[in-house]
Amino acid sequence: MSVAESIRAMVAEKEELAGYSGAKFGMWLFLITELMLFAVLFTAYGVFRALHLEAFHEAHRELNLTLGTVNTLVLITSSFTMALAVGAAQRGRRSLTTLFLSATTLLGIAFLFIKAVEYGAKIHHGLYPGGPAFQALEAGEKLFFGLYFTMTGLHALHVYAGILVVLWLLVRNLLGHFSSEYFAPVEIGGLYWHLVDLIWIYLFPLLYLVG
Amino acid sequence: MAMHEHHGLASFYEEGGNSLRSWLLTLDHKRIGILYLVSILAMFFLAGILALLIRTELLTPGKTIMDAEAYNRIFTLHGALMIFTVIIPAIPATLGNFLLPIMLGAKDVAFPRLNLASWYFYMAGTVLMMLTLLGGAVDTGWTFYAPYSILTRNAVVVVLLGAFLLGMSSIFTGLNFIVTVHRLRAPGLTWGRLPLFIWALYATSIIQVLATPVVGITLLLVGLERILGIGIFNPAMGGDPVLFQHFFWFYSHPAVYIMILPAMGVMSEVITVHARRPIFGYWAIAASSLAIAAISFLVWGHHMFVSGMSELAGAIFSFLTFFVAIPTAIKVFSWTMTLYRGQIRLRTPMLYALNFILLFTIGGLTGLFLGALSTDVHLHDTYFVVAHFHYTMMGGVLTGFLAGLFHWWPKMTGRLYSERWGQIGAVLYFLGFNLTYIPQFIMGSQGMPRRYWDYLPEFQGLHVLSTIGSYVLAVGLFVSLGVILHSLWKGRKSPANPWGGLTLEWQTSSPPPLHNFHGPVKVEHGPYAYDRVQAKEEVEEVTA
Amino acid sequence: MLPEAASSYAPAVDRVFWVIFGLSAFFFLLIVAFLVYFVLRYRNNREVLPAFESVHLEIAWTVIPFVLVIGIFYLGWKAFVIQRAVPEQAFELQVNARQWLWEFRTPDGQVSVNRVVIPADTPVKVILSSSDVIHSFYVPAFRMKMDAVPGRYTYAWFEAKPGTYTVLCAEYCGAAHSRMLATLEVVPKEEYEKRKQPSAVPAAATSRDPVAWGRELYETKGCNACHSLDGTPGVGPSLKGLFGHEVRLQDGRVVKADENYIRRSILDPTADVVEGFNPVMPPFAGLLSEEEINALIAFIKSLQ
Ligand code: HEA
Ligand code: HEA
Ligand code: CUA
Ligand SMILES: [Cu+2]
């Protein structure tokens, strides 16, 4: 091999590399942007909580702790199944991967369902921005619910997006796109799913426990 | 694919054809760069025409050509379009997209599809912003301060959504560049041999990725506030409008460095090539890009000295603000010293580069008046600030963009433009620019507030000067536009390396082939080794 | 470049301005000098001259600006402290901003719109609030500016020489932002005491020409920010030829502009919103006396 050829081969190899670890690197950067996004909401929450400590405490009792806790467990379990799916994919175990990806999808849907039940109850009681019970609240409590709906709403959107990603992985897995050589998308989708889970791990205590 | 007959001599324009489809679905970073270039120039044209309307209205106090409400909409649209659709993407998305992979010796960016997606997001965001024109437009100012933006009745939500999409597009570009720089450098291209343009884009990308989500969510919150009334920024519901300003500037201050850093990168390339001189202080310039990126996150409060923020916070923000001046000063001094003992050629790009140094230095130095607490109390929200940011954004970023555009135009299109007319354009630009904005510094110091449709009669003289200046400036820009359009029809073919540059993009044909290089790429010296390696200037003519 | 310096701390602020100006001019001219010299000297040079590196130079141009900017920060901060530290027992002027006028309340209970009389050479604390959006109270001659933020109080202070000064609104607040001006009349203390006596305004009122008085109120109470007298619509409809004519309202009703309509329009403007306009006129209930309303109506009647 001439020098020029070997260099060309090196370049080609490098570009291959970018495909895999580069994609993972890209995903990490994307996760950082997501964290910044939620950081804003957490900051707003922190500021208003400091300003309206009492009201926040009052308001947080309105949330359904049981459903919140169940949902936390659901989401943590889904993270676990996602990790298993990644492990299975790495070992090239296609049907196992299918199983765990499906489980993750179902758990994600369960999460959204429970969330919807919670929202439904709130809306039924008029406790939504602009709703009758909401209007009657004092300023600090309004802010709490405003933040509650914004934060959990945005998070739910992320879960929804995550489910779509997992479904897409599921389809590709069924089509036999993945092997023990090539499983990057599963890994990367897994990273995203864990992030969504992680955000909930912060939302839950802030909204349901501390208030 | 008949083009293969040309044995690799075909440019990327020929390879792959020129159907609409070949452009709209392309994954080639060069084509995406051109798509961006055309769209951004169109937006610049439009926002510039709006600026001329602003200036014409201000010829006389009271109504000249439009009423107050129209005026407010026009300056809002002018500002929002210039910031979000022109000056933030101007350099990274056009020159950056076209050149970054080539300068790295790569075939493309790391994620070509994401790259194309970013252009579509850009278009979607831009179209949304324009759509509001139909719906009565927005009158909040580009800063969208709450609670005005919550109370005013018009298409605010649509503009916010547009800005959000433009933010996504900006994030995609940044993310792509970071990964590309890390993973796709050609053999031999060590960090210490990276062209400074790449360093600058790299630092920019970091800010884009970290700061843009913040403004994205903040604008969404304003939208939610309008649609649902969640209360966060609404004092009537216990919310805090000053918090909005914190969030807004947490992004929008670093954003000004998203704009200026790439322009600084362009400067380092243009000056070294047209002075044929190694850059003075390579590492200092590279490091100062990163320093600026880091410090830019700590100073946002300097936009809020009179907003009711605490005095202590004001003092801290003021103190930190001055630290940004140091890395910037280092760059300005280093460019100046690069000219020492050079072989200077005053071609159009070099004239724009000199324009940049002069205009941006004025812009930066007037930032010191604003960073100092007591003078900012007087100057805040006056025309002094307007002049400051036009000197930095237009005198700095746009001038840098034009320098780069002329510098790389032969590479991007394979055509040489008329040197003489290019120079005339650059000189008119300089004269018109100063005539437009120096009067604004003076009236600002005298207490002329910004965003004023009507004003006290004593300011009229200065306003008239400024308006005349803006017309001269517009003529200069039209000349420049004519120059580049003319070159497309009538321009001579450009050689591969017209100015004798040493970075990788000059070592491939003009315009480059689809995969950027005709053979393997190997880097054996730094990008500015003009004292050791001399590339031939293939265009010798330098008009006097 | 700077307007007259009419407050006690204005000269301190101006000094900072000129120090920064001097430093900036120095550095700017230095850079220009080098640029011009290099360009002239090395233009079209064809010779490769030896490389030039100098760490000393780099250290110098890092350290010197560093020291200088810390100096600038310090100067700016020092003058800022004066701007923010209100002397004890200041005269308290309450200012409420709303789209698009300034309401003043002096400690002796006088309420006025867009015009206020203040004693000279007395520290005056301006306490700012806002009824709607953010505004900013800006008096260029005093080098004073402070935002009026809804939902909280902010403050600023000044001590001024006698004279008449313009207050501008410096934070964008909507359609008539550029017309949101007020006049500060700063008079010597003795004169202020004299004027403070509840001067026989009501009595004088009855004896004054109501049309002339109405015109004065139109200018001083801020009506002119939104209403023209020549028929061109502004933020609000022109008052020319209004009286006695039919007005089409937003909700489709058509009413005749008689005394009662105008009175209601002034005191409770949202009751009858004119077609084609936004309900943005502030209610003047409590801000105008009966006599003043009568005078305004007389004035509007006269505009045929
Ligand atoms: C590209 C854009 C850009 C850039 C690069 C800058 C650069 C700087 N800006 Fe500017 N700025 C804006 C765009 C920009 N700005 C915009 C858009 C606004 C207004 C937004 C709005 O309200 O609508 C604004 C507003 C703004 C304010 C708020 C004003 C107000 O509203 O009251 C302040 C206050 O501190 C400020 C400061 C600075 C400083 C200190 C720098 C520094 O980075 C400058 C550093 C450069 C130099 C100092 C010159 C070079 C150095 C030398 C020649 C060496 C000699 C120097 C020394 C001795 C120090 N800017
Ligand atoms: C990069 C940003 C940018 C640029 C380039 C400009 C360019 C110009 N701006 Fe703008 N401006 C802003 C950003 C910018 N502005 C912002 C952010 C605001 C604040 C808005 C707010 O308060 O919310 C503002 C506000 C603003 C005001 C203050 C309004 C007010 O406060 O009431 C004024 C007034 O004079 C003004 C004037 C101008 C003028 C005359 C130009 C001219 O320089 C324009 C000249 C351009 C043309 C005439 C177009 C011609 C173009 C071509 C022919 C194509 C050229 C192509 C090639 C050469 C390839 N601008
Ligand atoms: Cu009130 Cu501007
Ligand atoms: Cu800033």
Shape annotation of chain C: elongated
> Compute the gyration radius of chain A: what is it?
22 Å
Q: What percentage of amino acids of chain A are in beta strands? A: under 5%
The largest chain-to-chain contact, stated as pair and per-chain residue counts, equals:
B-C, 91 and 85 residues
Low-confidence stretches of chain C: none
- The CATH superfamily of the largest domain in chain C is identified as Cupredoxins -  blue copper proteins
CATH superfamily assignment of chain A?
A: Cytochrome c oxidase, subunit III, four-helix bundle
Mean pLDDT of chain C: 87
Description of the molecule:
The complex is a heterotrimer of chains A (211), B (544) and C (304). By secondary structure, chain A is mainly α. Chain A has one domain (37-208): Cytochrome c oxidase, subunit III, four-helix bundle (Four Helix Bundle (Hemerythrin (Met), subunit A)), CATH 1.20.120. Chain A is built from seven helices and no strands. In chain A, helix 3 (65-90) packs antiparallel against helix 4 (94-124). The longest helix of chain A has 49 residues, at 3-51. The radius of gyration of chain A is 22 Å and the shape is elongated. The model of chain A is unreliable at 10-18 (pLDDT under 50). Chain B has a single domain, classed as Cytochrome c oxidase-like, subunit I domain (Cytochrome C Oxidase, Chain A). Chain B has helices at 20-24, 29-57, 68-87, 90-104, 112-134, 148-151, 156-183, 196-227, 241-275, 282-295, 311-338, 348-371, 373-379, 383-413, 419-446, 460-490. In chain B, 65% of the residues lie in helices and 0% in strands. In chain C, a hairpin with a 5-residue loop joins strand 11 (246-248) and strand 12 (254-256). In chain C, strands 3-2-1-5-8 form a five-stranded mixed beta sheet, with no helix packed on it. A five-stranded mixed beta sheet of chain C has the order 4-10-9-6-7, covered by helices on one side. Chain C folds into three domains: 10-84, Orthogonal Bundle (Helix Hairpins), CATH 1.10.287; 91-204, Cupredoxins -  blue copper proteins (Immunoglobulin-like), CATH 2.60.40.420; 208-301, Cytochrome c-like domain (Cytochrome Bc1 Complex, Chain D, domain 2, Orthogonal Bundle). Chain C has 304 residues and is α+β, with helices and mostly antiparallel strands. Helices cover 37% and strands 20% of the residues of chain C. The chains are: A mainly alpha (211), B mainly alpha (544), C alpha+beta (304). Chains in contact: A-B, B-C. At the B-C interface, helix 3, helix 9, helix 11, helix 12 and helix 13 of B face helix 1, helix 2, strand 7 and strand 9 of C. The complex binds heme-A (2 copies), dinuclear copper ion and copper (II) ion. One heme-A sits between chains B (143, 256, 259-260, 302-303, 321, 324-325, 328-329, 332, 361, 364-365, 367-368, 370-371, 376, 380-381, 385, 388-389, 392-393, 396-397) and C (23, 27, 31, 65, 68-69).
